[in-house]
Amino acid sequence: MSKQRINQAFQEVLAQGNKSFVPYIMAGDGGLDSLEEKVQFLQDSGATILELGVPFSDPVADGPTIQEAGIRALKQGVSLRAILEKLGQFKENRSIPIVLMTYLNPIYVYGVESFAEACRTAGVSGLIIPDLPLEEENLVAKELQANDIALIRLASLTSPPERLKELARRTEGFLYAVTVTGTTGARGAFHDNLQEHLASLKNICQVPVLAGFGVSTPEHVKELSANCDGVVVGSKIVDALHQNNRDEIKTLIAAASSKEQTTAE
Ligand SMILES: O=P(O)(O)OC[C@@H](O)[C@@H](O)c1c[nH]c2ccccc12
């Protein structure tokens, strides 16, 4: 379990000459009872790591699609505690590492130490906490360290070079390179300098760099992963799962595989 699982997952992808694909889903969208089956489906479809969102009432970084999924989950009464319990129940049945995406508030309400221990018990390998800046990391760092949970840092497009260096140095598991300014959600084109930005992050970072925000087509997956180690896809996956468009998800994941590239050319 734990941190090391993330590194292993990346190594397997590298050994196959593929890029990584990290789908994001909202825990409890469609009910927590369907979580295990969804995780299994994503694992079987070739996802590298799963980013699992915790529904929250004030999701400041989330665009409309993820916000709506969060509202659906909250309406079902899904809580952080229930999510961790559910994850613990089927941890033996999955091999895909799980990274929880949660804002700081639910962690605080839970209690930082109990939360970190519950994550370990549930088989959670890492955390993304979008409203936790570098300067405040000591609020959780000790507890996460003690429970072998990776803290994945987000590098924004507008961070100055010194800050990017610090984020790249500190991050664990991977560096999440945010590809746009603004919230999550599907978009048309990316910033002109994005490829250069990703390549420069690769240069300063020892662990994999994954690009996320606005990735919604197989072409995006190929285009962005060309200059980094892979992609994170949220809104598109959340939408497709909600509409039960599973083939669309398989096609997206396949775009990160080198085999798919050869057949497409
Ligand atoms: O939905 P998109 O544009 O594909 O972006 C990924 C994103 O949804 C997921 O990683 C995420 C959901 N909520 C977040 C909050 C902050 C950082 C990242 C996230």
What does this structure look like?
The chain has 265 residues and is of the alpha/beta class. The chain is 46% helix and 14% strand. The chain contains 13 helices and nine strands. The chain has helices at 3-15, 35-44, 64-75, 80-89, 104-110, 112-122, 141-146, 161-170, 194-204, 218-225, 235-242, 246-254, 258-264, and strands spanning 20-26, 50-53, 98-101, 124-128, 150-151, 153-155, 175-178, 209-212, 230-233. Strands 5-4-3-2-1-9-8-7-6 form a nine-stranded parallel beta sheet. Strand 6, helix 8 and strand 7 form a beta-alpha-beta unit. The longest helix has 13 residues, at 3-15. The chain is globular. The termini are far apart. The model is unreliable at 261-265 (pLDDT under 50). The structure holds indole-3-glycerol phosphate. Indole-3-glycerol phosphate binds next to strand 2, strand 9 and helix 11. It is an enzyme of class 4 (lyase). The alpha subunit is responsible for the aldol cleavage of indoleglycerol phosphate to indole and glyceraldehyde 3-phosphate. The active site is at 51 (proton acceptor), 62 (proton acceptor).
Biggest sheet, strands in spatial order?
5-4-3-2-1-9-8-7-6
User: In total, how many beta strands?
Assistant: 9
H/E element order? HEHEHHEHHEHEEHEHEHEHHH
Q: Low-confidence runs (pLDDT<50, min 5 residues)?
A: 261-265
Helix fraction, binned, reads: 40-55%
Number of helices: 13
Name the structural class. Answer: alpha/beta
Major sheet size, sense and barrel closure: 9 strands, parallel
Q: Which ligands appear in the coordinates?
A: indole-3-glycerol phosphate
Overall 3D geometry?
globular
Q: What is the percentage of strand-forming residues?
A: 5-15%
Using the CA coordinates, give the radius of gyration. Answer: 17 Å
The N- to C-terminal Cα distance equals: 38 Å
Average pLDDT number: 94
Subunit structure: Tetramer of two alpha and two beta chains.
Function: The alpha subunit is responsible for the aldol cleavage of indoleglycerol phosphate to indole and glyceraldehyde 3-phosphate.
Active site: 51, 62
Pfam family, one: Trp_syntA
